[in-house]
Structure formats: structure tokens, C-alpha cells
Amino acid sequence: MSELPELFDTHAHVDGEEFDADRSEVLARARQAGVKRLVVIGAVGEPSSAERAVALAEHDPDVWATVATHPHDVDKMTPAWWATHERLARHPRVVAIGETGLDYFYDHSSRELQQACFGRFIELARAVGKPVVCHIRDAHEDARRILREHHAAELGIIIHCFTGTPDDAKAYAELDAYVSFSGIVTYKNAQPLRDAVPCVATDRLLIETDCPYLAPIPKRGKRNEPGFIVHTAEVVAKEAGMNFADLARQTTANAHRIYRIEPAPGPMA
Predict the structure, then answer these.
(1) 119, 122, 161, 172 — which has fewest CB within 10 A?
(2) By the 8 A CB rule, do 158 and 131 touch?
(3) Superfamily grouping for domain 7-259
(4) Neighbour count for residue 30 (Cβ, 10 Å)
(5) Residue 51: which residues within 8 A CB-CB, separation 6 or more?
(6) DSSP class per residue in 78-134
(7) Are 11 and 99 in contact (CB under 8 A)?
(8) What does R_g of the chain's alpha carbons equal in angstroms?
(9) 8-state DSSP, 3
(10) What is the DSSP code string of 247-263?
């Protein structure tokens, strides 16, 4: 039997309590599906999420972490929260700052504060020389303005869980951003997202699960997990005009490049 194509889940929340009962089994299933590496996003709620993500990355050589506060929660940030992020941002297993950005769909935090914190997190990324992972929902124009104002392209930009239009994808391309597609791209009502895939240069394409959220078809309605990224990759490959193996190879290379991670030397244990 030939070896499975290597896949890289660029955005997962496996630090959360949803995986406390079976995290080891989830990661084992991911490896069995070809998901060799993943990045755990330490940005849910208070900074304990960042601490958990870093701890996971410290104990698994195929896992890396990011740190930030999600735009939903920036109205709760304190000086202590910022101090934690500034400390962890320098950790060698932290490969990016994020997810940060703007969410005008829910508006859980004021738009003015979201914008201010987005800019501050980009500057933190600059201070540590790492890329920025962006959560952008219904706020693409403001997000691109802030990314331009802070010259974020110099650091590297990842638009996680892209939910914009083909025109938005083209506009992010002008910023040299990497664009990541989640399980949403498999949904029946997501044709505009599928139409956006070929608007992204193949060397800027990424795939992710955003687990435990957004399980792809045919797993929709279940707790998402890294191994399910195979279904997202199949759809993205089709829309990009690539076969599955080439899509896997390209997106994995892209993930290594943007996160500044050395490619794996050989078969995963």
C-alpha cells in the first residue's frame, strides 16, 4: 500500500475541553489519515488557551502553537492578558500570532476595540518576527486596510477560514496573503467559496479544520477533528484543478513556508 499524501492542518483547536477525553486518539487518527503536522491556535477566551496550546506543542514534535486573543474576546483583555501573549509569543514552539482580526458578524467586542487590538497584535508579530493569523468575518475592507497600514505582508499573512467572495480572495492576493479554506468549502450553499479557490495562487493555498468546529461534509454535525481535513482537501483540490496528492503536497509546502517550519525529514512515527 502506498504511503498517504502528507497533509498539514494549519488551524486546529485541539487544546480545548472538547478533546480532553480522547486527545491522544484524535491525534492518532489524524496521523492515520495522513495529517502529519498541525498548528494549535491558542486564542479562545482567556490566555489559558494560549498556555494550553504551547504546552501541547512542547510535548509533541508534530504540533506547533499560536497565541493571541480572538476578536470576540478583546473587550475582556487586561494588561495581564497582554503580558502573557508577549511572553509566549517568543516561545520557540510558537510560529505565529493569532488568531486575531475583525468579526463584524457577531460584534461581541466593539469594532473600534477590535481594530485597535488587531493592529497591536500585528505589531507584536513584528516584534517577534512571526506571521499573523487573521480571523476576518464581514470585515474584509477594514481588515485589508489595517493589514496595509501595519505592513503585515512583510511578516506573512494567513487569512484563516476564508469566508469572503472571489473578489476578496483576489484582494488578499494583492497583499501576498495565504488563504486557508475550512470545511465550509464542502457545504452545499458555499459555491462562492468554491469559486474563490482558483482565485488563490497555488503557492498561497492552505487547508484547515478549525476543529472542533465546521466539520466538512460528510462529517457535518459531528465534532470536527484533524483527520477530517481529507474531505476539505478533496474539494479544494477539485476546485483548484489539482489532483489530491498534488494539492496535499502543495498546501503542506505552503504551511511549512509561511510558518517557517522545516519540512519533516522522513516518515512519521
Answers:
(1) 119
(2) yes
(3) Metal-dependent hydrolases (3.20.20.140)
(4) 26
(5) 42, 84, 88
(6) -HHHHHHHHHHTTSTTEEEEEEEEEETTT-SS-HHHHHHHHHHHHHHHHHHT--EEE
(7) yes
(8) 17
(9) P
(10) HHHHHHHHHHHHHT-PP
Task: List Cβ neighbours of 144 (8 Å cut-off, separation of 6 or more).
Answer: 171, 172, 175
260, amino acid identity? R
Instruction: Name 207's bridge partners.
Output: 181
Provide long-range contacts, Cβ within 8 A and 24+ apart, for 261-266.
261/37, 261/64, 261/95, 264/6, 264/36, 264/37, 264/62
Nearest to 205 by CA among 183, 179, 233, 185: 179
Q: Which three cell numbers stand for residue 90?
A: 517568543
User: Please, are residues 90 and 66 in contact by the beta-carbon 8 Å criterion?
Assistant: no
- Return the axis-axis angle of helices 48-59 and 79-88, rounded to nearest 10°: 20
DSSP tag of 2: P
Q: Would you give the end-to-end CA distance of the chain in angstroms?
A: 17
Predicted local distance difference test score (pLDDT) of residue 188: 97
Say what the pLDDT of residue 229 is: 98
Query: How far apart are the C-alpha atoms of 82 and 125, rounded to whole Å?
Result: 13
Hunting for cell 486557508 — which residue is that?
180
Grid coordinates belonging to 190: 458555499
Exposure string of 55-68, with b = 16+ CB inside 10 Å and e = fewer, is bbbeebebbbbbbb
